[in-house]
Amino acid sequence: MSRAKREGARGETLDFVQQMLGQLRDMATAEGCEMLAYLIEMARIEAHDAARAVRPSRPRSGAGDRS
Question: pLDDT per residue over 34-55, tens digit each?
Answer without folding.
Answer: 999 999 999 999 999 999 998 7
